[in-house]
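Our preliminary data section would be incomplete without showing what the modeling component actually yields. Below, a chain of 369 amino acids is followed by its predicted structure, encoded as tokens that our downstream tools consume directly.
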Amino acid sequence: MNKTNAKKSKQPVILIVDDVPRNIQVLGALLNKLDFELAVAMNGQQALDTVSKIKPDLILLDVMMPVMDGHEVCRRLKKNEETKDIPIIFITAKSESEDIITGFELGAVDYITKPFIGSELIARVKTHLALKTTKETLQEEVVTKNKFFSIISHDLRGSFGIILSFVQLIQENREYLSPDELNELLDDIGKTSKNTLNLLENLLEWARSQTGRINYNPEELKVHDLSSNIIQSLQEIASNKEIQLTSDVNMDYEAFADKNMVLLVIRNLVSNAIKFTPKKGNIKINCSEDDNFIKVAVTDSGIGIENDKIENLFKIDMKVSTLGTENEQGNGLGLVLCKEFVEHNGGEIGIDSKLNKGTTVWFTLPKTC
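Predicted structure:
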């Protein structure tokens, strides 16, 4: 069984690298006052091994160490594509300008000489963590914008192109088309138009969520009523594929969330399940609860999801789009939007899937107090 879920945000991890236990103790005492997670390495090789496992947000690196000094550690980290962006602050008793220049040439972001002032070190740590966060945010925004325009230019243009080609075909051949041929073309236009409208609605909702302009009005919700609403609205589409669409949600389960957001999430999950479930399959909405959360799950008997695709399904910068069992179109935006809305309501979303066996997409919502 393959599993993934949206990760919770974590506190910054700082790696302290020094071969002197007393120095580690002093740095640890200073940083423990703040909301950081600390990791420790006592030599250069141990530092590289630790970074490969936890990938810290910042490294405080001593220069003078046996076997492998801090300069060599920095050199290796900066040559590695996965670790080159980790900010490194050298902390050393060597204060000659040549040593400082060498540190910066290797890619360090700062250089602090011993003995240092605690408040100054903390200020620099905070500054470089903030700069790292800002850089990552800007990179994410660029990727997000590029993805957004890619969907508009490729998916929307492609959909309208298909619609226009069908219309042109009818206009140029209306005298020669039989009633059955005409109806088939009109059905194709209808299906493509619906898919295009769904894409456009998802794009608009997602854009509003990114700009903070989407309305958020949490209230007490009966999950049974929401699931029934979705089943009623999608029953015809499921019936066209001879798919049994059912709900097994207890009437008493209540969540505290925004109704429109939750409806959109369930609708997207059920629509996806219909798309990737072959004829005569089945799809069920069920629900469970614990002390604090309601868990809603949409389970299908569909084709499942390949292992290498699961991790990327909730990422806006990854193009994960697969044709349905009846060649239904998709754009990979629906699950991204679901993740945005679930997290906006204080929940998590995840996937359990087995290739050729079926998929369960689940999400949690806070319970009514």
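The first strand starts at residue 2 and ends at 5. Residues 1-9 have pLDDT under 50 and may be disordered. Preliminary results of this kind motivate Aim 1 of the renewal.
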